[in-house]
Amino acid sequence: MGGSTRVPLKIRIAVWLETVPALLKLLGVERVSLMCHSAGTIYLLNTLYHLREILDPVKPYVAIIGPWVDTEQSKVFLWSAASKLPVGMFDAWNGLGKFIQTQIAPSLSWSGGVISAVSGVFSSKPSCAMTPGQRYDTAEDVGKEIEKLQVKYFFEEDTTAANEELKLCAKKDVSVTWDVCDDYETYVQTFCTSERARKDSHQDEPKLEMHVYYAESDMMIGKGGQAYFDKCWNQSMVSEVVDYHSVELSGTDHDSALIDQDKGAMKHIFAAVGRAR
Predict the structure, then answer these.
(1) pLDDT confidence bin for 110, thresholds 50/70/90
(2) Average pLDDT of span 226-252
(3) What pLDDT sits at residue 204?
(4) CA diameter of the chain
(5) Which of 6, 44, 84, 198 could lock 36 by a disulfide, CB 3.0 to 4.6 Å apart?
(6) Is residue 221 classed as helix, strand or coil in its secondary structure?
(7) Predicted pLDDT at 98
(8) Which InterPro entries match (predicted)?
């Protein structure tokens, strides 16, 4: 994306896991809370498992907004159908997103990236998105200009990474997995086992706090995906080591659950992190 180095699909997660500690070291940051949106769930869960030590020991906290769920579990028609397309068609996804955003429907919400940009066209449910003025807390004409320039500059640079992300989300390459979270239900079991072992040597640390925020209308995973994600994290072994909570954000869609300053999740996340200090 942009001017960053291209990363092949097969090593995307591995490169991410190398990049995070290197970046934190460069910034002089020792401890963090983790937050993600949508496809970032794959990266966050791997980070949580492989780099657990970077979380704040005073209040280990994780927040997930609109978590991505395997289409085999979510059963969302759009993505179930998309996953059956030839691999070559995925390589043109960013171009399709650019065409839709700049030529057909430039007013569509695009904050979720090229994937959301295209899927928004096929949504059968009304959008819960804010007006541009509401989104940026400014006059409507100013908000519209901000949005227009965002789309313009977003697509000015390289967006081919979106194609690789889509292949990853759709598990289009059978030789590529989501690493430790390839199956969410098994991941939760594995992570909780690791977390129990960690508690033996970190007895004073509180339980990991995980907050999940669902959109009221999410065309990416639907209600089925939400139910599946909750089911995974409500397994019997979880409560011993993870304080898990999920909530549906009224009046939001997949994108506005992240960016809506009033109805979205961000204000709740910052408040939760701030309570530890």
Answers:
(1) very low
(2) 98
(3) 87
(4) 58
(5) 44
(6) coil
(7) 56
(8) AB_hydrolase_fold (IPR029058)
Measured CA angle at 123 (ends 118, 128), to 5 deg: 105
| pLDDT tens column, 153-206 | 877 787 777 888 888 988 888 888 999 999 999 999 999 999 999 998 888 889
Q: 108 pLDDT band (50/70/90 cuts)?
A: very low
Q: Is residue 252 part of a domain?
A: yes
Q: Are 254 and 127 in contact (CB under 8 A)?
A: no
For the beta carbon of residue 67, count every other beta carbon within 10 angstroms: 29
**Is residue 146 in some structural domain?**
yes
Neighbours of 176 (CB within 10 A): 18
- Among candidate residues 118, 138, 153, 164, the one with its CA nearest the CA of residue 5: 164
Q: Is residue 162 part of a domain?
A: yes
- pLDDT value at 118 more than 70: no
Domain count for the chain, please give it: 1
Residues contacting 183, CB < 8 A, separation 6+: none
Residues 101, 1: Cα–Cα separation, whole Å: 17
How far is the CA of 243 from the CAs of 109, 211, 234, 246, 264, in angstroms? 33, 8, 10, 10, 21
Domain that holds residue 101: 9-274
- Helix-then-strand count for the chain, H and E: 14, 4
Rounded distance, CA 168 to CA 191, Å?
Answer: 21
* 209-235-276 Cα angle (round to 5): 5
CATH of the domain at 67: 3.40.50
3-class SS letters over 31-71 = CECEEEECCHHHHHHHHHHHCHHHECCCCCEEEEECCCCCH
Supply the pLDDT for residue 217.
93
Is 150 within 8 Å of 14 (Cβ atoms)? no
Does 88 map to a domain? Answer: yes
